[in-house]
Structures are given as structure tokens and as C-alpha cells.
């Protein structure tokens, strides 16, 4: 009897411990139905191979975004704390602060800070961590252009706040005993961008302040935070010291600006005058409560809600409002401008056209219009429509001009509060005059002229030397010939369709045929999109593995199995190329079953971006997001329901490994938000949504027009994941799709769920 009681006690203890472990991941004291209480910014903080998610503290779509400076969740020391993170994927930060105790010593600047994850709290509006070596509680909360660090030291010690820079030549100026003006000379050598950022900060109390020259002292970490051989510290350093009898709680309150030091002071006065740390924290929480509360879900598991609402939170990290009290700095022309409406920056069109911009078109079309107008403004300032706008200019990014798809998609969804005429002008200039090569910006060259004439981008044979001078300029990046051909077909379709919408028949007639260029690289014999040389001869490669690192010769970041489906503008045409709906379905089946044919280390040395694999389907990269929905274009739409559920359950769990690849600041998270709700914008530019199996029994979206869209699936469960019938506003659906207008008019979609998979639906076209 005693043995049985002991066994039950041990079992109960293990169950409770397991439950507490899960709750600690969510970092909430009480799980409730309120969406923000399900958000866990640590989800996905350990990457499968490449870039990791970050536990970002910020307001939705605002400029100040902060996370602790460390490699990832498993880096057991923190280097320092930034005032602003320019890039929320890799740690490109400006202005650093860290606490120390005792006398101000040079070693304190480069000593890393030990902490304990169990003494760390991460919320969208608040961060805190106990630094264990010196027993210092570090807290942070953010405003739009401001932030406050609060440090609680042990009683009776000398307390220091140490400031440094992440880039050389940074300067600090101390004023009035407790005020600080900073200048950071940002040099992003990777992307060839330069610019300046400014800081205005105030220390609490009356500290002893001073400066040190960073160039004469040696640190033990690089800008990335990886311990390496000693490096010189960047720029000037400053400090504020407090005596043993001073209050153990000290704050550094600050504002940043990309306009001027004077503007940083204005930002400070506007946001922080008379505002306490706890008030700013409460204001941030209220902002997130309002934003996240726009979507409410019922049913599903607690883990699914944590993954869902965390994904929704990540959809607000890009783009960011760069406006500063009627002014803004634009990296497009490196000038400061007066602002008559919000100006937004920081975006990756190649990843975010897929679902992030379409999601915003539902939740906040007014802000989406401001963002699109910002693109137009940057085109007017630089002469090129940007694709990867960053604070100091358009980063050379992936291939293609997906801004064109974004403009068409918004226009067809009734978002018109942007200069569509000038946007169309910029789209046309990119299509006719810009290089298509990946990771390059600038005018077209001979390869583009070849493409215009022949309808495909020419490839080189394995081992053949590059003959184009412009293509050979970028080390490690090649022609990506098949990917470029497929990408331009979609971009050209978007241009032609917007031309038709605007009554420009000349552009429509010119570019509509170019939208069919994908057919020029379809090789019927192999059933893949394959490279051709300049003579028009096929280059026989293994589409699963050939093409150099990341497949840059022919594809890009993904292999031929992924690019087989990159015809978003014409799935009907792709279906015909493949030999009909049944053949397309067989190809899709094989995609999810096809093996690596080599060891995992060998495969991922070649394809580090192609992660989150099920067969040859890679959930970890943007190229593939829409592929599971293509089953809706076959006779077996139930397979879309099967695979979207499998992908969400497998790759998006509520833990530190819960993201399968490079999330890119909202692109992958928006896939999760849509798919968990049960529908997805499979072809941006066509204002319809493809239906899949929702995770929840009820989803309701409070629309900005005052209406509410509701999806009801009362029988939905892990087993009942297949759609037996569907109605929109009481009318039976014959195919699994509905329009954007039906959603925005406050429609009600009802799905009857069950285990059977034999329901016949009309194919989408």
C-alpha cells in the first residue's frame, strides 16, 4: 500500500513538473483566454541551422526594437543591452548599455554577463533578467522611439552603468551631470550601407559621469558577441557611477533618432516626460492587448494558442514607423524629409508578399496603404522601387520584384490610399531597366536583354566560367537562372494585371505573354523546371542537389523540388504542364515522400536554408509556403487539410525550437496565423483565400470597418480535421475558397469537420 502511494505521488509530481515546465515557456502566471497571455517571445529562439528568432520587446510596427545581445537562447552569457536593433534577425544594434558593481574598470566593458533563464521574463512589452554574478535585476520596456532600462542593484554597493558602441567612431557627450548625447556611425559592410543614429538619454539621480576612449582598450568579443581573440572596442565609452549609499534602483531613460540629436531630445520629451517605467510598461501592454485582441480563437490546445498568438505577435515587427514628429530620415536618398503621413521602413518583399502584407490588408488596411505609399516615396527619392528597404537604403536582396505583387494585391482588395499611378511607374521601371540578379541592385545588363528576347534567363554549365561582368561581381552569388525565370513570370503577371486594372492596354499586352515564360524552362522529360544555356540547350543536372552552394547557379536557397511549384499566378497552366490534376497530385504526393538520397550533413551543407523537411518539402524557407494549398487545385483537397495540420503540429510547437527556419520577421509567422485560422492567400494578386483545416473551433476577426469575420468549425479536433461541407453566409460552397470581399463584409464561414476524406470538391482554377 505504501509502495503504491509513493508511486502515485512520484507520478503526480512528474506530471505537475511537466505542466509547470510548459507554463514557464509561456512565461505567464496564469493561462487565460486573453491573447497576449499566450505570447511567448522565446518560441523559436534556437534556429535549426541559420538565423534564430529573437525575444523582441517593442510596440507594434514601431522603430525601437530591443532584445539582449547574445547569440541565441543557448548562449549562457549576455554581452550587453542595445538601445535599438536595426535588424531583428541578426544582431545589428546601436548604442549599448550594461551594469557593473565596484570601481569602474576597463574589464567591466568586455566582461560578459551571466544569467539564468529561469530568472528571465520576456513579454512583447517588457523584459527582465537577473544577472547572477553581481545579483543585478535588469528590466526594460519600450516606447515608439524611446525606452527605459531599470537596474536594481544589491544594497550597499557602488553601482555603474556602462555605455559603449557597436560601430567604430561612435561618440558620447555628457551634459548637466546626468544627460547623455550619443552618435553612432553605422557602417553595414555586408550590405554596403552607411548612416548615422542619435541618442538622447538621462540617468536618474546625480551620478558621477565620465568617458573613456574605446580605441585604446581591448575587449574579448566581436560585434556579433562571439568570444574570439581580443578586439579593440568600438568608439567612445561613457559611464555613470553611484555610491554605496545611493538608491539601489537606477534608470537610464532614452530616445533614439535617425534625424538629429535635437530630434532625439524631442522624441524623449514627447514620450517620456512625466512617464514612469511602470506607466510606459502598462501603455505597451495596452497597445499589445488592443492589437492582438483583434483576433480571438476558441478551441484547440493551450500549446496551439501559444504558437498562434506568438506568431501573430511576430507579424508586427515589420515594417516600422520611421516618422519622428513630422520628419523622417530616408535611406533612399540619405536625406531628412518633412512627413505628412507615416513613413515606414524595413521590409523584405521576397518573403513578406506571401502572407504578411495580405494579413495586414485584412487587419489594418490603412497602415498597409501607408506602407505602400512609403515604397512609392522611396522610389521617387531613389529612382528605383525598393525590394528590401532598410534604414540606410535598399538592401541588395533576393531575386525578383515582389513589390509589384504587393501593389496589385492591395489594389484589388480595395486599398487605394496610395499613389498607384507612381507605383505603377516604378513597377514598370524595375521590370524594364533593373537587374534581375540576386543580391545586386542597379540597372540591367546583357543577361536581362537576353531574357527579354528569349524568355528565359540563360544558365552556365557546371564548371563553366562566368562570362557576364556584372554577374561575376558578387562573390558566392550566381545567376539563379531557373528561379529568376519563374520569379519574373509572376512579377510580369502582376504588372500586366495592374496595367489592365488601370486601363493601360500596352503594358498589359506586353507583359501578359511574359507571365508565361515559366513554360520555357519546363522539361517534360524530367518533370522539373530545368536550366537552359544561351544556345537553348538543356543543362542536365540533378535538380535535387546540383547548382553549387544553396543552388545559386540554377535555383536559389532551395532545390528543384521546391521550385517545381513556383507558378503562383497560373496553377491551371502548371497543372496542364504536369499532365492534369491527377498527375499534379501524384507529384505533390511525391514531394512529401521523396528522400534526401544522401546523409543529412551532406544535404544541409549544400542547402542550409532548406530546413523543416518532410520529404523534399521544406517548411523552413519562403519558397514553399503556398505549396500545401495546391492540393486544392487537384481532386484531393483533403490533402491540403492533412498537410497544413501536419506542418503546424510538427514544426511550430511552443518551445525554443518551435520555428523550422529563417522566420524573416513575420513571413513565416503569417503563414502560421493564416493556416491556423483555416485559410490562406495562395496567390497574392488574386483576392481569394484557399480554405484548409482550422486548428480552432471558432475564429473571429474584428475588422477595421467595424464588422466581424467569423469561422466556425465546432467539431474540429485532431481526428476531425477534414472538411465534410462548408457554407459562407449560409450558402453551400462547392469549392474550398472564398473572396476577400466576403471576408471584409463580415462573412460567416461554417465548416463541418470529420474523419472522412472522400468528400468531392470542385477544383480551384
From TrEMBL:
InterPro entries per the UniProt record, alphabetical: 6-hairpin_glycosidase_sf (IPR008928), GH-type_carb-bd (IPR014718), GH92_a_mannosidase_put (IPR005887), GH92_N (IPR041371), Glyco_hydro_92 (IPR012939), PNGase (IPR050883)
Glycosyl hydrolase family 92 N-terminal domain residues: 38-257
GO cellular component term of the entry, any: cytosol
GO molecular function: carbohydrate binding; peptide-N4-(N-acetyl-beta-glucosaminyl)asparagine amidase activity
Keyword Calcium attributed: yes
Biological processes, Gene Ontology terms: carbohydrate metabolic process; glycoprotein catabolic process
One Pfam family from the record: Glyco_hydro_92N
Keyword Cell division tagged: no
Cofactor(s), by name: Ca(2+)
Gene3D superfamilies associated with the record: 2.70.98.10, alpha-1,2-mannosidase, alpha-1,2-mannosidases domains, GH92 mannosidase domain
Residue ranges constituting the Glycosyl hydrolase family domain according to the UniProt record: 263-755
Subunit note: Monomer.
Name the UniProt record assigns to this protein: Glycoside hydrolase family 92 protein
Native source species: Spirosoma arboris
Amino acid at each position: 500500500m505504501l509502495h503504491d502511494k509513493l508511486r502515485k505521488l512520484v507520478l503526480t509530481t512528474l506530471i505537475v513538473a511537466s505542466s509547470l515546465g510548459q507554463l514557464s515557456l509561456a512565461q505567464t502566471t496564469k493561462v487565460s483566454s486573453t491573447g497576449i497571455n499566450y505570447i511567448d517571445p522565446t518560441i523559436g529562439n534556437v534556429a535549426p541551422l541559420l538565423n534564430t528568432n529573437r525575444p523582441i520587446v517593442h510596440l507594434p510596427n514601431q522603430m525601437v526594437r530591443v532584445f539582449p545581445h547574445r547569440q541565441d537562447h543557448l548562449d549562457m552569457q549576455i554581452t550587453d543591452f542595445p538601445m535599438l536593433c536595426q535588424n531583428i534577425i541578426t544582431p545589428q544594434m546601436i548604442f549599448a548599455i550594461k551594469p557593473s558593481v565596484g570601481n569602474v574598470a576597463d574589464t567591466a566593458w568586455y566582461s560578459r554577463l551571466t544569467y539564468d533563464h529561469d530568472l528571465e521574463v520576456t513579454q512583447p512589452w517588457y523584459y527582465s533578467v537577473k544577472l547572477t554574478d553581481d545579483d543585478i535585476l535588469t528590466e526594460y520596456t519600450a516606447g515608439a522611439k524611446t525606452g527605459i532600462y531599470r537596474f536594481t542593484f544589491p544594497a550597499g554597493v557602488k553601482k555603474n552603468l556602462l555605455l559603449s558602441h557597436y560601430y567604430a567612431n561612435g561618440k558620447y557627450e555628457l551634459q548637466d551631470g546626468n544627460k547623455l548625447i550619443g552618435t553612432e556611425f553605422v557602417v553595414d559592410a555586408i550590405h554596403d550601407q552607411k548612416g548615422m543614429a542619435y541618442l538622447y538619454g538621462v540617468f536618474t539621480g546625480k551620478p558621477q559621469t565620465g568617458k573613456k576612449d574605446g580605441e585604446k582598450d581591448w575587449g574579448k568579443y566581436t560585434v556579433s558577441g562571439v568570444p574570439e581573440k581580443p578586439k579593440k572596442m568600438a568608439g567612445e565609452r561613457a559611464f555613470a557611477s553611484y555610491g554605496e549609499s545611493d538608491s539601489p534602483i537606477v534608470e537610464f531613460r532614452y530616445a533614439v533618432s535617425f534625424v538629429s540629436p535635437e530630434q532625439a531630445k524631442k522624441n524623449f520629451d514627447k514620450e517620456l516626460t512625466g512617464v514612469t517605467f511602470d506607466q510606459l510598461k502598462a501603455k505597451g501592454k495596452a497597445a499589445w492587448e488592443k492589437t492582438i485582441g483583434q483576433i480571438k480563437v476558441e478551441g484547440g490546445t493551450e500549446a496551439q494558442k501559444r504558437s498562434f498568438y506568438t506568431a501573430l505577435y511576430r507579424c508586427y515587427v515589420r515594417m516600422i514607423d520611421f516618422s519622428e514628429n513630422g520628419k523622417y530620415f530616408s535611406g533612399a536618398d540619405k536625406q531628412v524629409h518633412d512627413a505628412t503621413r507615416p513613413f515606414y521602413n524595413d521590409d523584405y518583399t521576397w518573403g513578406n508578399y506571401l502572407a504578411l502584407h495580405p494579413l495586414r490588408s485584412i487587419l489594418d488596411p490603412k497602415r498597409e496603404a501607408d506602407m505602400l505609399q512609403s515604397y512609392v516615396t522611396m522610389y521617387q527619392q531613389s529612382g528605383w522601387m525598393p525590394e528590401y528597404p532598410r534604414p540606410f537604403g535598399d538592401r541588395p536582396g533576393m531575386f525578383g520584384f515582389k513589390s509589384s505583387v504587393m501593389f496589385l494585391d492591395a489594389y484589388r482588395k480595395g486599398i487605394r490610399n496610395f499613389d498607384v499611378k507612381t507605383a505603377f511607374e516604378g513597377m514598370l521601371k524595375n521590370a524594364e531597366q533593373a537587374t534581375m540578379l540576386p543580391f545586386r541592385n542597379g540597372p540591367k545588363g546583357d543577361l536581362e536583354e537576353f531574357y527579354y528576347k528569349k524568355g528565359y534567363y540563360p544558365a552556365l554549365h557546371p564548371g563553366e566560367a562566368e562570362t557576364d561582368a556584372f554577374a561575376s561581381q558578387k562573390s558566392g552569388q550566381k545567376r539563379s537562372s531557373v528561379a529568376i525565370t519563374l520569379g519574373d513570370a509572376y512579377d510580369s503577371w502582376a504588372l500586366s494585371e495592374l496595367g489592365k486594372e488601370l486601363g493601360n492596354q500596352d503594358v498589359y499586352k506586353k507583359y501578359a505573354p511574359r507571365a508565361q515564360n515559366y513554360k520555357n524552362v519546363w522539361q517534360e522529360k524530367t518533370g522539373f523546371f530545368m536550366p537552359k544555356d544561351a544556345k537553348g540547350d538543356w543543362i542536365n543536372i540533378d535538380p535535387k542537389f546540383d547548382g553549387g552552394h544553396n543552388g545559386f547557379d540554377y535555383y536559389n536557397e532551395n532545390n528543384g523540388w521546391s521550385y517545381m511549384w513556383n507558378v503562383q499566378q497560373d496553377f491551371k497552366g502548371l497543372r496542364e504542364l504536369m499532365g492534369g490534376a491527377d498527375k499534379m497530385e501524384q507529384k505533390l504526393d511525391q514531394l512529401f515522400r521523396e528522400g534526401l538520397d544522401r546523409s543529412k550533413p551532406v544535404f544541409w551543407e549544400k542547402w542550409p536554408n532548406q530546413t523543416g523537411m518532410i520529404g523534399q518539402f521544406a517548411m523552413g524557407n519562403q519558397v514553399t509556403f503556398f505549396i500545401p494549398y495546391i492540393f486544392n487545385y487537384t481532386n484531393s483537397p483533403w490533402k491540403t487539410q492533412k498537410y497544413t495540420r501536419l506542418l503546424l503540429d510538427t514544426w511550430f510547437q511552443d518551445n525554443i525550437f518551435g520555428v523550422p527556419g529563417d522566420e524573416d520577421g513575420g513571413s513565416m509567422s503569417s503563414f502560421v496565423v493564416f493556416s491556423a485560422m483555416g485559410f490562406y492567400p495562395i496567390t497574392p494578386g488574386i483576392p481569394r483565400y484557399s480554405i484548409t483545416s482550422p486548428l480552432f473551433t471558432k475564429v473571429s476577426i474584428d475588422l477595421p470597418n467595424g464588422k466581424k469575420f467569423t469561422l466556425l468549425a465546432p467539431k474540429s479536433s485532431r481526428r476531425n480535421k477534414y472538411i465534410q461541407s462548408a457554407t459562407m453566409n449560409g450558402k453551400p460552397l462547392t469549392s474550398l475558397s472564398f473572396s476577400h470581399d466576403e471576408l471584409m463584409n463580415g462573412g460567416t464561414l461554417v465548416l463541418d469537420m470529420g474523419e472522412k476524406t472522400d468528400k468531392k470538391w470542385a477544383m480551384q482554377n
